[in-house]
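Predict the holo structure. Ligand: zinc ion.
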Amino acid sequence: MRSFIRDICLRGLGFINKPAAGVHILNGHYISKENKNQNVLYELLKSLSQNVEYIKIEEAVALVTEKKKVKEKYIAFTFDDGFEECYTKIAPVLKEFNTNAAFFINPNFIESDEKYKRQFLSERVFVKNKNPMKWNMIKDLHQQGFVIGSHTTDHLRLNIENEKILSEQIVVSKNIIEEKTGSICEYFAYPYGQENDISKEALTIAQNTYKYIFSGFNHKKYFSFANTVINRRHFEGDWPLLHMNYFLSFKKRYK
Ligand SMILES: [Zn+2]
């Protein structure tokens, strides 16, 4: 009942509000929890495109890190956790709109057996029936111009201080991705993405390892953690257009 009321309110707000000028970096995981068809995402992006323009994630990052004032309404995409539908459903839709995304992956989930996969999924209460991408899919995405970033080796919450574990999660995942794709991995998104999900120690290691670090909170501001972490706005591929209109209606600020 509560989510029904929330839905009605958001639709109402979305009816009144339209996307604001600025660079909106979105963060999703899949088309839908229930493995819906990719047409859902296609229709959402088609409707949104009446008001916004899609830009590549590298362009979005360049605009934001140079602290450009943007009059246009730009959207760029990122997807976390490396589910198979990133390759089979999401990437083909993004290509239809001439754009790309950064896919943040966990190397040990890519290489997981059934037991590891069940454990990985059980930490995500709403997704049960998902598989990881395979390395050949990830290599293909990289060759098609998508960005492959790290989301730690095992999707560990980085609110810890142990440097050995942090290095295994933050540095080793980068090395594996670079070995598989044959190019430098500059993007990192820490798991769970909230303010308390990364320790000072983890942030320092990430800053020494990657060019760009992404969170998943405070999306009204471009940056958090003293201008060192780029904030993203959560969405999923089957969200209603009117919800999106509302979430994108906030004017983005550098300070
Ligand atoms: Zn994640």
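Residues 80-81, 151, 155, 191 surround zinc ion (CB under 6 Å). The chain has one domain: 26-51+80-238.
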